[in-house]
Write a structure and sequence with these properties.
The structure holds two protein chains of two kinds. Chain A is mainly β. Helices cover about 10% and strands about 40% of the residues of chain A. Chain A is built from three helices and 21 strands. Helices cover about 15% and strands about 30% of the residues of chain B. The chains are: A mainly beta, B alpha+beta. Chains A and B meet through strand 17 and strand 18 of A and loops of B. Chain A: InterPro entries: DUF4466.
Chain lengths: ~325, ~140
């Protein structure tokens, strides 16, 4: 008797749970909050450094009946370089996943620590993009941001972001070098020079690009230190005074996306950071790298040990005897 | 009843002990010592500091003369090379390769010993490394 009652009770309880559990709750459209609202995210990834923008997306909105957007500004704890700006467009994503920009403000202005825009259209919602270009002053320091906006009803909102450490690294992208032409590379200047130019700045030349086709061996594209043994720089006449040494260490499969920012495809990319430059052991490295391929690179340490750098070959041109390379440099 | 229980326990203990008594010998590296007596190198690879092959062609492994002849590209940094041996099943190599190896002294080729699975046969291979040179 007891077991029958118990059984019935359990079945009944389960049925109740099932019915209650399946009760559908009707979706309700969230009510927008009253007053001026804002939100912010950091869009860019990877180490923050000179020459590379830190990108933010700042969203501001107020209900239509309450007012419209008047202005927005970002105050950095350390003034950015001149390239710092707020894009005067508001972005949204279309059905194809593309960012669509609509002009909503006047061009931004920089005044000391502040970058500011005034809205030029009647709008009550916008997502602005802020690009902070680290200045020399910010290197090795942390920088923070206060995003703020005002609306026509006199309200003000703000949003804090950071702090973000600015690394002691720099980069130079897409430097074209060609054998016998602009082939003398300076890590100090992060530029390539012709022989005549190199002669006027011999102490800054760390690498020489050359391309050779030699029967019996595979030489092709090479990066060598001017002081390397003559057998690794066949047919090369060094300009007067150019003769610095360097540590050069071949590397493969290190594709830093900050050295190839516009790349597409399924390649795996990494971010080289300060720790990589600090920890790499180049003591036993030779002073030449021969037979280099596209998307390979070399670690370099200058003779004065002032800099360590990663020189990445974006592309090579066998027929043209040239390469396009990018440099990420760390000041020791 | 108690008597049967003791008997049962005794049988269980016997089974347990007999299961554990079988020994699988291992060597000083913790590797299983087997009955295999073969000790030879199947193939050989050599990588540069960028972990890419630096061979100009397939290395020649002579299992009779116990030599490996390999030519590397001109300009290879032979002070930092990573040799890789493919060995017959259960064999092991001595000395162990734990990182880059310096081949700079070309007049004194480096040697590695292949030890068979039963750890009784030892065959020493000499790696003769040459650097590709321009055609005169």
């Amino acid at each position: 008797m007891f077991s029958i009652l118990s059984y019935r009770s359990v079945v009944l309880a389960l049925a109740i749970v099932f019915i209650v559990g399946c009760k559908e709750e009707e979706y309700q459209v969230p009510l927008p909050e009253s007053g001026l609202q804002n939100d912010c995210i950091k869009k860019s990834n990877g180490p923050n450094m000179l020459g590379v923008d830190i990108e933010f997306m700042y969203a501001i909105a107020i209900q239509k009946g309450e007012g419209k957007l008047v202005s927005a500004q970002v105050e950095a704890s350390i003034a950015g370089a001149g390239e710092t700006y707020i894009d005067h467009r508001s972005y949204h994503t279309n059905d194809n996943g593309q960012d669509i920009g609509v002009i909503v403000t006047d061009p931004s202005t920089n005044e000391g620590l502040r970058t500011k825009v005034n809205f030029s259209v009647d709008t009550n919602a916008a997502t602005l993009r802020f690009y902070y270009r680290p200045s020399l002053e910010s290197v090795d320091k942390e920088v923070s941001f206060v995003f703020s906006a005002t609306s026509s009803n006199g309200q003000t909102v703000s949003y804090n972001m950071g702090p973000y450490k600015i690394r002691r690294m720099e980069r130079a992208l897409n430097i074209g070098v060609a054998d016998g032409q602009r082939s003398f590379i300076s890590i100090e200047d992060m530029k390539a020079y012709t022989a005549a130019e190199a002669a006027s700045r011999p102490d800054a030349i760390d690498l020489v690009y050359l391309h050779r086709t030699i029967p019996g061996i595979t030489f092709a594209h090479a990066l060598i230190a001017p002081a390397t043994d003559a057998i690794y720089r066949p047919g090369l006449t060094l300009p007067t005074g150019v003769g610095r040494d360097a540590k050069i260490f071949k590397a493969w499969n290190i594709r830093d996306i900050q050295l190839e920012p516009n790349v597409t495809g399924n390649n795996t990319f990494v971010y080289l950071d300060e720790e990589d430059f600090i920890n790499i052991d180049l003591q036993a490295a030779p002073n030449y790298a021969i037979n280099m391929k596209a998307q390979s690179g070399v670690w370099v340490e200058t003779a004065d040990r002032k800099y360590r750098a990663f020189v990445y070959l974006n592309s090579v041109n066998d027929a043209g005897k040239s390469v396009v390379l990018s440099i990420k440099r760390y000041r020791m | 009843m108690k008597k049967y229980a003791y008997t049962f326990l005794l049988i269980l203990a016997s089974i347990f002990l007999s299961q554990c008594s079988k020994e699988y010998p291992i060597d000083e590296d913790g590797l299983l010592i087997t009955t295999r007596t073969s000790a030879y190198v199947g193939s050989f690879e050599i990588l540069g500091s960028d972990f890419q092959t630096v061979r100009t062609k397939v290395a020649v492994v002579d299992t009779v003369a116990q030599t490996i002849d390999v030519e590397v590209h001109f300009g290879t940094d032979i002070s930092r090379l990573y040799p890789q041996f493919s060995l017959v099943t259960d064999a092991k190599l001595e000395p162990k390769i734990t990182g880059f190896v310096n081949f700079s002294n070309l007049s004194s080729p480096l040697q590695w010993t292949v030890i068979s699975g039963d750890r009784k046969i030892r065959k020493t291979y000499t790696v003769n490394l040459t650097v590709q040179q321009p055609t005169p």
